[in-house]
Amino acid sequence: MFKNIDLQDAKYYKSGQKKNMYHVKDMNPHWYNNFLSDEERDLHDANFAFVSTTLAKLHQTAYEPIWFTTYAMDIPIDVGGGFVDYVEYFTVDWRGLARESENLFGNNGTIIPRVNASLNQATKRVYTYEVAYDLSFVELQKLNKVRFQKSIQEIYQQQIFASYELFAQRIAYLGRNDQGDAGFFNNPNVKVYSVPAGVSTETKFSGLTNEEIVSFFNGVFATYLVESNHNLSLMPDTFLLPIADSRELSDRISDLLTRNLRDFILNNNYGLDEVKGTGLESNFNFSIRGREDLDSIGTFSNGRIVAYRKDKKFVRMDQPYPLQMHYTGPNVERASYTTIFVAQLSPVQLPYNEGNPDSAGEFAPVTYWDFGAT
Q1: 3-state DSSP call for residue 204?
Q2: Best label site of 65, 199, 203, 264, fewest CB within 10 Å?
Q3: Nearest CA to 234 among 284, 188, 185?
Q4: CA dist 118 → 92, 196, 314, 339 (Å)
């Protein structure tokens, strides 16, 4: 129908007479009455025609940057509490425990042993994250005429959430050295062990045999069991590895091509065998994951393995005020609407590793295993 309409025909309109002209409302009154707005009807009646066209095909999907974070998979997050300056917790240090032979008391004892305990207060500063965006009054009016499936507000908000998550991951893994706050991967209160060298004198998994790699994981489990007097609740259920070493476990395929080394270790290890021996198999889920932030850190900057039990008692991160829109209002100076987002989060807390200032260098639930020099 529209190809028969020429807006230039409007010049032939004289005294209500039509010459070589077609009205949209005459040819299709249903479309005219139901699909045209009042403004468009006025335009049509004034010019005797209304044409809407485009020279481009519009994709309905907005192709935005793809991003992803992993810190919430590795660290339990505690959300809520409102705006604060610090996250505070207390640790208990038992005092006065006598040696095994002196702690026994019976009919022939003359001294009753005494025990005491001390409380240690630990605090972590809280970072306040603030970010805003402006929507121009004029641009906002222009957007009303754009055939776009996604609002500009939603685009800005997704960008803000992405930037916050990336910021939170940096705080979680590596902390802020300029603020004196360590992350989960570089905490000075975590005891550091060495990955044993193999017969080839290499420590990276690429230079170790299958047997030597299996022996390493079994050795970590053995260390936890010995140091904790076989306390299965402390045994690590998560190993975070540098990317290359994590991949190496998947590259090692058995001769029968039925499983790789990673799958073998997950289902055949000393820790799992000990758990099975107690009948608590359902309570132990063992996982191995690669993290690129571990690639170049450690004693020799050659990679580090983090072993721990994923439990809020041993490792946690607080977000007292989760990211959310805090204020929206007109901004006369910028001729726009300004929206402010605010969040608060703390560095990672390792209560059993860093809670007692007198326990530096002692075994604790989180351990580091560093690869030797290349």
Answers
A1: coil
A2: 65
A3: 284
A4: 6, 37, 19, 48
The domain segmentation of the chain, as residue ranges, is: 2-47, 61-374
And the tokens for 105? 């008391």
Cβ atoms of 167 and 129 closer than 8 Å: yes
The alpha-carbon radius of gyration of the chain (Å, integer) is 33
One pLDDT digit (tens) per residue for the chain, 374 residues: 444 444 444 444 444 444 444 555 666 666 666 655 666 666 555 554 444 445 666 666 666 778 789 999 999 998 888 888 888 877 777 666 555 555 555 555 666 666 677 777 777 889 898 988 888 877 777 766 666 656 777 788 888 899 999 999 999 999 988 778 899 999 999 999 999 988 888 889 999 999 999 999 999 999 999 999 999 989 999 999 999 999 999 999 877 667 899 999 999 999 999 988 887 666 678 899 999 999 999 999 999 999 999 999 999 999 999 988 888 888 888 888 888 999 999 999 999 888 665 555 788 999 999 999 87
Q: How many angstroms separate the Cα of 219 from the Cα of each of 167, 224, 227, 361, 370?
A: 35, 9, 12, 19, 14
Burial of 119 (0-12, 13-18, 19+ CB in 10 A): exposed
Q: Which class is domain 61-374?
A: alpha beta
Sign of the Cα torsion 150, 153, 155, 157 reads negative
